[in-house]
């Protein structure tokens, strides 16, 4: 326990900056996901609404995890850092079990049915959802996810980056944004 407290004290600023990045990152991801839904014209379809639900779940899981990062820095009571770390481990399961699949499944369905991005992105989103969900189920009985499993979560960042770069490279010539008419609103 003293080592844990010393680590928190020594890396206090880095932990808080990491928590900030984990809060801001999902917001940007969600804004991009909503942009894809809008560009695909799916904001009024079930998959569009399911993407909104998945984004909400992802944001809540991230914010809960961040809360425990911050609470782990508190030393009163002395057991709070240890308890917080255990809760972080529990919350990380939620990313695999529900948060990632809930966002990637409906977004994948939308992308497979649209021309916003190459259809491969839609299929890859569905594959990612299956991998995350499968890992969530496979390691459900482990109280702490193994490091290689949590490392797999980083793969989704590559998907978002590749999708953003592809969308930028395609530009408006691939799919111009049209504002809804008064009747459509």
Give an account of the 3D structure.
The protein has one domain (2-170). The protein is 77% helix and 0% strand. The longest helix has 33 residues, at 80-112. α4 (80-112) runs antiparallel to α5. The protein has helices spanning 2-10, 12-39, 46-71, 80-112, 119-138, 147-152, 155-174. With 185 residues, the protein is mostly helical. It contains 7 helices and no strands.
Blueprint (SSEs and pairs):
Layout: H1 2-10, H2 12-39, H3 46-71, H4 80-112, H5 119-138, H6 147-152, H7 155-174
Helix pairs in contact: 2-3, 3-4, 4-5
Q: How is this structure best summarized?
A:
It is built from 7 helices and no strands.
Largest sheet properties: none
Structural class: mainly alpha
Helix content: over 70%
Mean of the pLDDT scores? 89
Strand content: under 5%
Cα-based radius of gyration, to the nearest Å: 19 Å
Unreliably modeled segments: none
How many independent structural domains?
1
Number of helical segments with 4 or more residues: 7
Give the overall shape, derived from the CA principal axes: elongated
What tags apply to this protein structure?
single chain, 185 residues, mainly alpha, 77% helix, elongated
């Amino acid at each position: 326990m003293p080592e844990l407290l010393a680590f928190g004290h020594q890396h206090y600023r880095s932990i808080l900056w990491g928590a900030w990045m984990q809060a801001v990152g999902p917001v940007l991801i969600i804004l991009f996901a909503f942009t894809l839904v809008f560009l695909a014209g799916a904001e009024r379809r079930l998959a569009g609404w399911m993407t909104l639900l998945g984004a909400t779940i992802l944001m809540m899981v991230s914010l809960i995890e961040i809360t425990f990062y911050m609470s782990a820095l508190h030393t009163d009571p002395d057991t709070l850092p240890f308890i917080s770390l255990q809760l972080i481990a529990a919350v990380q399961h939620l990313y695999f079990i529900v948060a990632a699949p809930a966002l990637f499944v409906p977004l994948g369905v939308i992308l497979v049915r649209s021309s916003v991005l190459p259809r491969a992105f839609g299929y890859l989103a569905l594959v990612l959802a299956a991998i995350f969900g499968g890992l969530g189920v496979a390691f459900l009985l482990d109280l702490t996810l193994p490091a290689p499993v949590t490392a797999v979560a980083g793969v989704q960042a590559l998907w978002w980056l590749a999708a953003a770069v592809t969308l930028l490279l395609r530009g408006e010539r691939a799919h111009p944004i049209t504002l809804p008419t008064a009747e459509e609103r």
